[in-house]
Amino acid sequence: MFNPDINDYQLTSIITECCGGVAVVYSALYKPNNQNVAIKRYFVDKTKENASLIQQDILTRKELQHVNILPYLTSFVHGRELYVVSPLMTFGSCRDILDRYFQEGLPELACAIVLRDVLQALQYLHKQLYIHRSVRASHVLVGANGGVRLSGLRSAASLMVRGRRQRHLHQLPPPDGDNTNLMWLSPELLEQNLKGYDEKSDIYSLGVLCCELANGAVPFAEVPTTLMFTEKVRGSRPQLLDCSTFPEPCLDDSEMKSMYNTDSGVGDSADAVSRLRQVYAGRKLSDTFHHLSEMALQRDPDKRPSATQLLNHPFFKQIRKTDYLPGLIGRVKPIKPDLDDMSALLLQEKLSEMEIEKTTEWDF
Amino acid sequence: MDPRMCRKISSSESLPDADNVEYEVSNIIAPQESDDNFMLDGSPEPHSVTWLDNDQIDELDLNLDQTNLCFHRVDSADIIYRSKKKKCKMVGKYVMGDVLGEGSYGKVKEMLDSESLCRRAVKILKKRKLRRIPNGEQNVQREIQLLRILRHKNVIELVDVMYNDEKQKMYLVMEFCVGVLQDMLEGSPGKKFPQRQAHDYFTQLLDGLEYLHGQGVVHKDIKPGNLLLTLDQTLKITDFGVAEALDMFSPEDTCYTGQGSPAFQPPEIANGAEQFSGVKVDIWSSGVTLYNMTTGRYPFEGDNVYRLLESIGRGEPAPPPPSLGPTLGLLLTNMLKRDPDLRPTVHEIRRHSWVQARPPLEPGERMVTPRSRRSDELHTSTVIPYLVERHYPSAQEYFTERDYRHELGDGGSRTLSTAELSDAESSRRKRRWHSSCGRLPSCRLT
């Protein structure tokens, strides 16, 4: 059990800012048993509507328990902020891993392990009549022992509406500030017509995740949102990039750069781009991987396999019992509690100031 | 009954004046001397019909040389159509789509938020038209003020308000809805819903009314024409043009003006009472709405507005048909009591046994689905063709009617969903769209 009391936690460093700037994730030490945890700190006042989303997130996570879904430990309010405690996922999100260590994408076997675990989470969610609606690398977290857990349940939706089981949903997921979440969403979800969408929408997002993990870049990034929409509606599918699908001769470097968002901001970005092109053109991903992503990215949701069917896909046969995810992504440094982290220390000071305020409060 | 009686008393029927109506004269079919292929703008879809007014028809007649009038027989395969250009237009961050409906104040169009990709509807108000409607500008101001405060799942959400001073237009951006109950009723057998469906809408109406009355707002114009449905069948109360915010500090709900639609007005307004309970007006109108949804008729009829109001004023509604069953009949009779004090409150209606128990769908009854202006029963976004025009400028293509029929399949009238179109093994499709995939190397067409 974890106590819902700020005094039992020592914040050690900032992991990331998220949810469009309304929340910050810290690593922290739970003092009673010296266990590392992650604490998400929400600034509830920033927008009113977010409060119900956070509530939704917590309620959903309380209800759902699966080895591949980020568990909820406890939550509490301190000052004007809401704190939600989860286990610390030491290697961070797959998006962080891609950005920092694998710009050209994860090794295929690592992709297989991650995708299998995400599919297991989806299989469970769909059985519980939930649609996740934000399957993306930033919501796939890797723990110290290589365990993969799906987070981001704030945009999940239940097919049980007003006590009745719905076949389809029609609403877009809640907006995420900068609308990046749309890139992973299925064409039928974005279309918002009377047909609606069901859990197969998550399978499409898993297909986009395949490309994201393998290519390093998110398909449709840097393309106008409306073009991404029409491309999906017209049935064009993102692809895994290797010698069989890339390079396309018509592309010049500047176009390439804008398509793949590979501009790292460093001066030699052109070099980085051509290096990336060479990596794509010089590698070969397995046919089963291509097949898996193609199956998942089919335009017609009824043709897409279910999570259960995909788990039996030959692509996953390459995983052996001895395969260990942290070994495959050896370059990645785990998030270490860093006591010298200035910002965390500053925050700690701020918190202690608040405690002083509390003790000197006038008592009538 | 004259459909005008279901509209507001105040809104005078404005006739379209010539300079105000936009005509498309691009696809007039004129006989030609040459036997080459005819070029026609617009695909042969039913909705691309061009309407000409009398003047234009006269002009056409004049242009025809009577002596040389002859018609060439042209094989339909030789007629080449050009897909109609959908010029993409942006207002703020929104991409405009097709017209969803039209009112005396202006048009309602579909829009797409280009950032969130959320479908929206926009009410376009023209200042010039608004001035001609009694209380027009005042009603719009009131509607905006009220909608800005109100937030409930059964009340239409005002998302954004934009002004264009140059064009003298105002844009009220709202949640997207697929249909109006009024239109659905008109298109259904017997102009009524199965009780199961009416029950679903009525309970949502009660939820919305309870919220409104709790917020001190009286709608005063509840009727099927002001009840919309979203994609997921959520009912939305709309049109707050004649609604009134009650005095927060007054224990009474006294109102002095009634501008609602005649057929839904209570006796106290029909009799010209100077003041009346606002909440009980909504109860009455909801009663008439329920009566209408379940029977396809109105409790009061009249050949004209005066006869109708006279009949309402007497307060003797046509008794609900026995086929409705005793519980619903009793509920309707109670809601349509002449004396406002005898009408039940929202809470009392909620506890009524007809509301408590969801009626089953009787054998032979079918749920009524929202009608579509086009032949698209899925109500797919009408913005997509405009976006296609914008992003794939070369997408425009010439095609013959035979191609078109072929594309539609043998029946020629079936609507293909976009999903079917793109998954279909149609090489022609591929060619037409090929220009797009060259730009996105990470994508390929199915």
TrEMBL record, chain A:
It comes from the Eukaryota. This is Uncharacterized protein.
TrEMBL record, chain B:
It comes from the Eukaryota. This is Uncharacterized protein.
